[in-house]
Write a structure and sequence with these properties.
Blueprint lengths: L1 H4 L1 E8 L5 H11 L17 H6 L6 E9 L2 E9 L7 H9 L3 E7 L6 H12 L3 E7 L8 H12 L7 E2 L8 H11 L12 E10 L3 E10 L2 E2 L3 E4 L4 E4 L2 E5 L3 E4 L1 E2 L4 E5 L13 E4 L18 E7 L5 H14 L4 E7 L3 E8 L2 H15 L3 E3 L6 E5 L4 E4 L11 E15 L4 H10 L3 E9 L2 E9 H15 L5 E12 L1 E8 L2 E2 L5 E4 H18 L7 E7 L2 E8 L4
Parallel strand pairs: 1-3, 1-4, 4-5, 5-6
Antiparallel strand pairs: 2-3, 7-8, 7-16, 8-15, 9-14, 10-11, 10-16, 12-13, 12-15, 17-19, 17-20, 18-19, 21-22, 21-23, 23-25, 23-26, 24-25, 27-28, 27-29, 27-30, 30-31
Length: 549
């Protein structure tokens, strides 16, 4: 029991670019967890891509040893992504903690994603320690940001810590606050094993390494463990804790964050949010909150050269081991040959997968227009899930189509309310609520169809508000909608790769733009080419490429 009193599990909640990874660097440096030789900026973001974009894509965990008031403490930092696409991963990482540092940039104030992750943390009953970062910058508005934090979580002004992660100012105070305020883990070391999986990574030599937090019981090297949701058992070849590298131990016990290697090679057997228990003495209770990750956006990925298909398939398999939220199935297209229909958590996720295919696997791929998943009800009572325009039943057989809706939360300055209203109402949005968080911050809540967001919403939002709006969404339900399938015809022949599912009121506009674009791109031939956009048999837009004379 003595050990458990001195364990602190915590994470850092922050918006993109508020200095989360830099603060993690300082914490590791000040406690000498990392020698000066291994130190580099954003040490926990180990993908090149994470460093370039300045975002955290995968969760990470690391153990810090810290001595305070004559006692040795073990602090487990679980680093989480800040982006809305990865919110399920964040929710599992939060479930593995007892406390959270709420990190807010002194020059920017509170942003939408910080708020949504903060609510997740509050639902998990975490102790929240507010920290204002970047106080050494010229534009720091410490008092205003203090007021925003007090209004949001109702703490006292003296509870808010001031720090600058870049210079290391105030970081000592953060360490002491973690020891004082974050509660020690509760749990029964003698109960049957119950551990929550919050992440997994693929290692080409060892198979899949699973990260977990033990809630009850303990796990020893050589135990036979069982994963509850898949009901499969494995031998624990190696268990241990996470320092900068893996640190093997004979036993990991209650309250600890650790890893286990069992030689699993198939990504589908490990799910974030699953529960680990012992095969001979099982704890049948699943840890609450486990859910299958649902993809929101679908797009086709095809190799540029059709001969590379087998190679692309291997790459997709390997990528899925590292990123369990990627789903894909086979797809064929007359124009593009064999490829995959992939499901992503959102637009950023799609961009990252594309980048990783190009960087890590040298695959150049063609991506089709992204779309969301619709549900079509046919006249004879069938229900068809449509992830791809070619799966759409004939218009004569369709009774109604449902599309997914989301609840979007936008936080911005009052000057831009008009622009945002115009943008969202133009995207078939519906304003639910408008409230002032402070005099200079307003929160708008819309209901919108997800389809409208997939295309270019985020870029437009940023340009309409000069980058001063932050955006966050959660799916709500499906609603009936007038969705039509638009085909592009070249001299009367359908090109299936260019088909799109689109709301009927939008189709004419979108069709016209697409035809104009194709007219620019396609080379002229010895004969005339007619480019047409059609819904069913009705042509809604046309461009003609005249023949070479």
């Amino acid at each position: 029991m003595h050990r458990m009193k001195n364990i602190r599990n915590f994470c850092i909640i922050a918006h993109i670019d508020h200095g989360k990874s830099t603060l993690a660097d300082r914490l590791l440096e000040m406690t000498n967890t990392i020698s000066a030789r291994d130190m580099q900026a954003q040490v926990l973001d180990d993908m090149d891509l994470e460093r370039e974009k300045g975002i955290t894509i995968k969760s990470h965990a690391i153990q810090i040893n810290y001595a305070a008031n004559g006692q040795k403490y073990i602090l487990n930092l679980i680093d989480t992504p800040g982006h809305v696409d990865f919110s399920y991963e964040v929710s599992r990482a939060l479930a593995a903690c007892e406390g959270a540092l709420l990190l807010v940039d002194a020059t920017q104030g509170i942003q939408a994603q910080t708020i949504s992750n903060l609510y997740l943390a509050m639902e998990n009953d975490l102790e929240i320690i507010p920290v204002i970062n970047k106080i050494d910058m010229d534009g720091a508005m410490v008092d205003e940001v203090k007021d925003q934090i007090i209004e949001l979580i109702g703490c006292k002004p003296e509870d808010i810590l001031l720090a600058s992660a870049k210079t290391g100012l105030g970081v000592q105070g953060i360490l002491d606050a973690i020891v004082e305020k974050v509660p020690a883990p509760k749990g029964d070391p003698s109960a049957p094993l119950q551990a929550l999986i919050f992440d997994s990574v693929f290692n080409s030599f060892r198979g899949i390494i699973v990260y977990y937090r033990i809630l009850n019981g303990s796990i020893k090297k050589g135990d036979i463990v069982k994963f509850v949701s898949t009901d499969l058992s494995y031998g624990a070849d190696e268990v241990g804790v996470l320092k900068l590298a893996l640190d093997p131990r004979p036993e990991v016990s209650t309250g600890d964050v650790g890893y286990i290697i069992t030689g699993i090679k198939n990504a589908k057997e490990v799910r974030v949010g699953d529960t680990i228990t012992l095969a001979n003495n099982p704890n049948p209770q699943m840890i609450q909150g486990f859910q299958e990750v649902k993809p929101m956006v679908f797009a086709g990925i095809f190799p540029v050269d059709t001969d590379d298909f087998e190679e692309l398939r291997d790459c997709m398999d390997k990528l899925q081991l590292n990123d369990a939220s990627l789903t894909y199935e086979l797809e064929t297209s007359q124009a593009l040959g064999f490829g995959f229909r992939c499901g992503f958590l959102g637009m950023l996720h799609m961009e990252i997968i594309q980048e990783r295919l190009e960087r890590e696997f040298n695959q150049t791929v063609i991506t089709t227009v992204p779309n969301v998943s619709f549900v079509a009800h046919t006249s004879n009572g069938e229900v068809v899930i449509v992830n791809n325009p070619s799966e759409m039943p004939e218009p004569t057989r369709i009774e109604r189509i449902e599309e997914p809706y989301i609840r979007a939360q936008i936080i911005t300055k009052p000057d831009y309310i008009g622009n945002i209203m115009t943008l969202c109402l133009g995207k078939r949005g519906n304003l639910l609520n408008q409230s002032y968080l402070t005099t200079t911050r307003v929160e708008l809540v819309f209901e919108m169809p997800l389809t409208e967001i997939v295309f270019d919403f985020y870029d437009k939002l940023k340009s309409q508000t000069r980058g001063y709006a932050s955006f966050d969404y959660q799916p709500i339900d499906r609603r009936d909608s007038d969705i039509a399938k638009m085909d592009i015809l070249l001299n009367g022949d359908k090109v299936d790769a260019l088909s799109a599912l689109i709301h009927r009121s939008r189709a004419a506009d979108f069709g016209r733009k697409l035809c104009e674009k194709l007219k620019e791109l396609l080379p002229r031939q010895q004969f005339q080419i007619a480019i047409q956009a059609a819904i069913g048999a009705k042509v809604i837009a046309r461009e003609t490429i005249s023949a070479l004379r």
